[in-house]
Each structure stands twice: as C-alpha cells, then as structure tokens.
Amino acid sequence: MSSTDTEPLRVERVDDGALAVVTLTAPTMPPPFFAACERVFTDLAADPALRAVVVRGGGKAFSYGLDLAQAFAAWGPQLSGGGLAASRTATFQLVKQLQRSFNAVAACPAPVIAAIHGWCIGGGLDLISACDIRLCAADARFSLRETRVAMVADLGSLQRLPRILSPGHLRELAFTGKDIDAARAEKIGLVNDVLPDRDALDAAALALARDIAAAPPLVVRGVKHVLEVGDGKSVADGLDYVAAWNSAFLASEDLGEAVAAFAQKRPPVFKGK
User: Fold this and answer.
1) Contact at 8 Å (CB) between 218 and 176?
2) Contact, 128 vs 120, CB < 8 A?
3) 181-208 mean pLDDT
C-alpha cells in the first residue's frame, strides 16, 4: 500500500496501484476541500492503471457537508445575498467552480464506491450521489439538509439522485431536509448494502473494488461510459451507441484471454489490452 496526503483528502494506492482509497480527512468540507477533490479525481482519471476507487470518511462521520463557518468567512459576499449583476455573476461563478469537484468524481472512468459511516449530510450526499455504488454501515444517517438552512442544493444531489431514487422519495428528502437511517436508505435504494459496523464496511468496499478490478478494465470503463451516454436516451439510441462502441472496441487481448481461460477451465487474468 502506498499513500499520498492531499489535504483535505488522503489518497492511498493498493494492490499495486490498481485501486485507490480516497479518505476525507475532516468531518466537514471547508473551502479548500473542493479544489482538492477536483484535483484528486482529475489525477486519478488520467491513470490508465486505475481499476476502481473507494471513497470513505476518516473521522467519526463520513461528512457533515459544507463547513458553513469557513464558507461564510471565505465567500461571505457571494453567499449572503445583495448586490446587482456583478455580485450575482460572482455567485454563479463560485457555484459552478464548486460543482466541478463532484463532476470530477462522476467523470472518473473507473467505478467509484462510496463507503459511508455516521452522518452523511448536504455536501456529503452530493459526493455520494456522484459515485457509482454506495455501501454504508448500520450507524449511517443521511440528510439532504440544504432546505433546512435556506438553500437549494446546488452541487449535484438534485440532478443525480433522480437517477438513483424514485421521484417521491427524492422529493420527500429534498422538501423536508429530514434525516433517514441506514435501513431506510437501503429500502429506497440510496445504498446497495448495509454492513454491521465500520470495519465490515471498509472490508466490504475494498472487496467490491477488488471484484471490479478482477474484470477486464477497459470493458468496465466501457460499461460505465455506455451507461452514462445512454442515460435519458431511448432504448433504440442506446442500442445504436453500444453497437458502434463494440464494433470499435470489442476486439482485444482480454477477449482472447477470456476465451482461453474458459477453454482451459482457469481464472482469467485481464491486462487491459
């Protein structure tokens, strides 16, 4: 295992670099968090050896979301209202800048797994909604909290959660800012599985990442890309796209390895070629 510290995120590379574990080092998201998140995931996306990513919290909670005190200290004029076109434009630009942090998570070509324990509030929910798969510990609690602090969530929850939750469940969470527990989160499809404790959660997330890493990496990336392109399109358009994709990328050394391994009754070893 190797690691690098990029405050307020820590990145560890495991399994000879095939996997990355990204740990949130603080329980809240101060202003520097957002640039760090964009930088970390942009760097990870550029690494062809990467096969899967786990995102986890390093403290007593996954994330309480935006650090409001530090945010108002840094961005007070933009967040507190007032002003005319120039100041409103500055607010717009700030929000777009912050959105890039979780856009970078969603754009990572390797699958991203969120491992959630304790509270996951506001910006924490924006972050996990940008991940491909979500697991949580039994002590996890979730809240799309922005409504309760007089804000419209603007970093991705309202755009990405409709692809995860049914409209009624999403609107209930967004309109009320209510808290839900791990059992409710699993019931409505926000998380795939609930693990008994944090140790079991970390182990399950890493095991799932390794299951993904065992598959042909270019195929996994292709599946993620085809799913993203197909979102919101007709079945016919999606079928046309995947037909074109496979006509370009189906032939590979990994496909030959899959056939040979089947014939020889052994596990395949995929190299992403």
Assistant:
1) no
2) yes
3) 97
CB 124 within 8 A of CB 65: yes
Kind and range of the H or E element at 210?
A: helix 198-213
pLDDT at residue 209 tops 90 = yes
Considering the domain boundaries, does residue 77 fall inside one? yes
The length of the chain is: 273
Q: What is the domain extent for residue 234?
A: 217-264
Nearest CA to 146 out of 165, 173, 128 is that of: 173
Q: Same domain for 81 and 23?
A: yes
Q: Say if residue 203 is in the same domain as residue 81.
A: yes
HSE-CB of 131 using CA atoms within 13 angstroms: 26
Task: Identify the three-state secondary structure at position 137.
Answer: strand
Q: Are residues 228 and 200 in the same domain?
A: no
pLDDT for the residue numbered 83: 66
Q: Is residue 156 part of a domain?
A: yes
Name the amino acid, one letter, at 143: S
Give the list of residues 6+ apart from residue 164 with CB closer than 8 angstroms, or none.
129, 189, 190
Residues 108-127 have a mean pLDDT of 97
Could you tell me the CATH number of the domain that includes residue 181? Answer: 3.90.226.10
Q: Using an 8 Å Cβ cutoff, are 249 and 228 in contact?
A: no
Q: CB-side exposure of 118: number of CA atoms within 13 Å?
A: 14
Whether the CB-CB separation of 34 and 101 falls below 8 Å is answered with yes
Q: Which residue has the higher pLDDT, 265 or 31?
A: 31
- Per-residue pLDDT band for 255 (boundaries 50, 70, 90) equals confident
Could you give the CA distance from residue 90 to residue 69 in angstroms, rounded to a whole number?
Answer: 20
